[in-house]
Write a structure and sequence with these properties.
This is G-protein coupled receptors family 1 profile domain-containing protein. Belongs to the G-protein coupled receptor 1 family. GO terms for molecular function: G protein-coupled receptor activity. With 390 residues, the chain is mostly helical. It has two domains: 53 residues; 325 residues, Up-down Bundle (Rhopdopsin 7-helix transmembrane proteins). It is built from 16 helices and two strands.
Length: 390
């Protein structure tokens, strides 16, 4: 009976405890009493350490298939809306000369980034629907995970580029704006919004920090959370991509807001009215000419409207990103990570809706596109004129 008790206790001991107990005599009852107390105290302390360091949700796994199926369905619907909407944005810019502006180069870049996200996240839906893990080759999941990460990161860098563009347009002189936003410099800015996220995403993985692929914990194509340096990759990428662009965005729009409100108060105080011309019915060429002639304080009413509505796009992105960022910083909120990650995907579908509902130029062109009235579209591009002539 003594031997059985010793065997039972030995099987429940940690390696360190085994070493201690192996030196005790199996025939000594006092040794067993002392060992038993030591074992109980040791196990209690170990349990307290685990509870303190790991938290109640450290072992969380997204195994509820009903939740996964609901999430996958929502992702698929969001991707359909986002894909159609962003294709419409690209077509609108291609068909209307009015939309072919320097600022809209970045809007097009944002639409392309959103299209990349909409094209890669359906594989996340496949992972969520699957009951047997990732059903395709692992390399497919890793590539789609990389595309999603690059697309989301490119979106925020493009939003920062748009905010800087509006800041220079409204706050600086026309000559300064033209000198900064030349075709070559715009191309370099756009290239940076893609190359930088790609390097941040790929270089750490290349050097063995983290691993892109299937997450058995969350049942998604993001990164392999079982990898020992998975958390380092997440925190490093987040720190290098998100904080600075968000600060740039809010500083630029805050300065624009203060400049516009200050200008309006100054003009009204002088009794001259607000010097804002309404260019809603003028052509893009006329609007640009007027911008070049006027000093920076005499910005057009339409430019202010466009800036305001592009700020809505920024607010939508922050609203979609913030829940995920908060859950990453709070370890006990791990069960919410899959759902907050899904909200980020919504942003790819939200932007075209904002353009269609608020942006004055896109709204007009979308209306003609949805009614198939291409022959009456104002200021048709050269591409559209060629199509008409056939």
């Amino acid at each position: 009976m003594t031997t059985d008790k010793f065997a039972t206790m030995k099987s429940t001991m940690t390696p360190n405890s085994e070493t201690v107990f192996s030196t005790m005599s199996a025939n000594s009852s006092d040794s067993f009493v002392t060992s038993d107390k030591f074992l109980n105290e040791n196990m209690t302390i170990a349990a307290m350490i685990v509870a303190t360091t790991e938290g109640p949700h450290q072992g969380f796994r997204f195994d509820d298939y009903t939740q996964r199926a609901i999430m996958a369905t929502i992702i698929c619907l969001s991707n359909v809306v986002g894909f159609v909407g962003n294709v419409m944005v690209l077509l609108a810019v291609n068909l209307s000369r009015k939309l072919q502006t320097r600022t809209n180069v970045f809007v097009v870049n944002l639409a392309v980034a959103d299209l990349l996200t909409c094209s890669s996240t359906p594989f996340t839906a496949v992972a969520l629907f699957s009951k047997v893990g990732w059903p395709m080759p692992e390399i497919v999941c890793a590539i789609m995970s990389g595309f999603t990460s690059i697309g989301v990161a490119c979106s925020i860098l493009t939003l920062a580029s748009i905010s800087i563009n509006r800041y220079v347009l409204i706050m600086k002189t026309p000559s300064t704006y033209r000198s900064i936003y030349t075709p070559k410099k715009i191309a370099a800015m756009v290239a940076f919004t893609w190359v930088y996220p790609a390097l941040i995403c790929c270089l750490p993985v290349f050097f063995g920090v983290g691993k892109l692929g299937y997450s058995d914990k969350y049942k998604t194509c993001t990164q392999d959370t079982s990898h020992e340096t998975s958390a380092i990759l997440s925190h490093t990428a987040s720190a290098l991509i998100y904080p600075i662009p968000l600060i740039v965005v809010f500083v630029c729009y805050f300065k624009i807001y203060r400049h516009i409100t200050g200008h309006m108060k100054k003009m009204m105080g002088k009794g001259k009215g607000v010097e804002m011309t309404d260019t809603s019915n003028s052509s893009n060429v006329a609007s640009t000419t007027q911008l070049h002639k006027n000093p920076p304080a005499s910005f057009s009413k339409r430019q202010v409207e466009i800036t305001k509505n592009l700020f809505y796009v920024v607010c939508a992105f922050v609203a979609c990103l913030s829940p995920f960022a908060i859950t990453l910083m709070i370890p006990p909120s791990q069960p919410a990570i899959p759902w907050t990650g899904m909200i980020i995907i919504f942003n790819s579908a939200v932007n075209p809706i904002i353009y269609g509902a608020k942006h004055p130029h896109f709204k007009e062109v979308f209306r003609h596109m949805l009614r198939c009235r291409y022959h009456t579209m104002p200021e048709p591009s050269g591409c559209l004129r060629k199509i008409r002539s056939r």
